[in-house]
Amino acid sequence: MFPTTAGPRVIVALDYPDAAAALALVSRLDPSQCRLKVGFELFVSAGPGLVERLQTLGFEVFLDLKFHDIPNTVAGACRAAARLGVWMVNVHASGGRPMMETAREALEAATTSAPRPLLIAVTVLTSMDDADLAGCGINRPVTDQVRYLATLTHEAGLDGVVCSAHEAGEFRAALGEQFLRVTPGIRPATADLGDQKRVMTPFQALTLGATHLVMGRPVTQARDPGAVLTAINSEISAA
Ligand SMILES: O=C(O)c1cc(=O)[nH]c(=O)n1[C@@H]1O[C@H](COP(=O)(O)O)[C@@H](O)[C@H]1O
């Protein structure tokens, strides 16, 4: 079945060391206001049981494990993610087109009766600049490499990319409205930037072409996370 793209635009990053800390925050959130992202730290600590628990609580989960391996191994990981019933999963686009195609086919084959997880790809991590790419033997600017890998992801038939909100408009125009643009580095106007350098407000990001907003600390470290989400959803409803 075709995956679900409707629903809350905000994906709260559960960057916590264990299940107890994550669940303490989640108990203050409402599934109608956000989805949840489980990454390496929490998954390694708390495992698939926590993902199931979050889903039982009514939340859709983005399993952010950035698979990058030979096609057969990535396909197996995608099948496991499909069995877990997550809403979204991701791979590294630099794993190549055959790897991405095999991952998509594995998800499609694994989910004939339920909506299949959305499959997106990471292009170049926002922590990398031109010098870091050159250090990996890639002698082109980050913006060119991001554009190249986003196009490759589209050709492989994936549902979208993780990208900066600054690139979202270009990809909407070049790769189509349906191709998802999931953007981290989002900060409400009054929020602390933390270690994010190229930031945008939720309204700016959606107006420029983001489809989903990944937000960690502005929600997780707020005194009233629910009120922050209510304010963000109200702000972006006009975008
Ligand atoms: O894959 C990601 O989600 C991701 C990719 C990227 O290039 N940059 C980035 O910040 N992220 C994630 O987005 C979230 C941002 O969290 P905050 O900076 O606290 O809002 C974290 O979970 C990061 O791991």
From TrEMBL:
Q: Does the keyword Transmembrane apply?
A: no
| Orotidine 5'-phosphate decarboxylase domain boundaries | 9-232
SUPFAM superfamilies referenced in this protein's UniProt entry, alphabetically: Ribulose-phoshate binding barrel (SSF51366)
* Enzyme Commission number(s) from the entry: 4.1.1.23
For this chain's UniProt record, which GO biological process terms are given? 'de novo' pyrimidine nucleobase biosynthetic process; 'de novo' UMP biosynthetic process
Q: Which Gene3D superfamilies match?
A: Aldolase class I (3.20.20.70)
Reaction catalysed? orotidine 5'-phosphate + H(+) = UMP + CO2
**A GO term, aspect molecular function:** orotidine-5'-phosphate decarboxylase activity
Among InterPro entries, the record links this protein to: Aldolase_TIM (IPR013785), OMPdecase (IPR014732), OMPdecase_AS (IPR018089), OMPdecase_bac (IPR047596), OMPdeCOase_dom (IPR001754), RibuloseP-bd_barrel (IPR011060)
The pathway that the record names for this protein is: Pyrimidine metabolism; UMP biosynthesis via de novo pathway; UMP from orotate: step 2/2
Return the GO cellular component terms, semicolon-separated: cytosol
Broad enzyme group: lyase
Keywords for the protein's UniProt record, in alphabetical order? Decarboxylase, Lyase, Pyrimidine biosynthesis
Per UniProt, where does substrate bind?
Answer: 15, 37, 64-73, 126, 187, 196, 216-217
Task: Read off the CDD domains from this record.
Answer: OMP_decarboxylase_like
SMART domains, A to Z: OMPdecase
* Role, per record: Catalyzes the decarboxylation of orotidine 5'-monophosphate (OMP) to uridine 5'-monophosphate (UMP).
Q: Which family does it belong to?
A: Belongs to the OMP decarboxylase family. Type 1 subfamily.
Q: How does it assemble?
A: Homodimer.
Q: What is this protein called?
A: Orotidine 5'-phosphate decarboxylase
The organism is Ectothiorhodospira magna
Taxonomy of the source species: Bacteria, Pseudomonadati, Pseudomonadota, Gammaproteobacteria, Chromatiales
* Encoding gene (name): pyrF
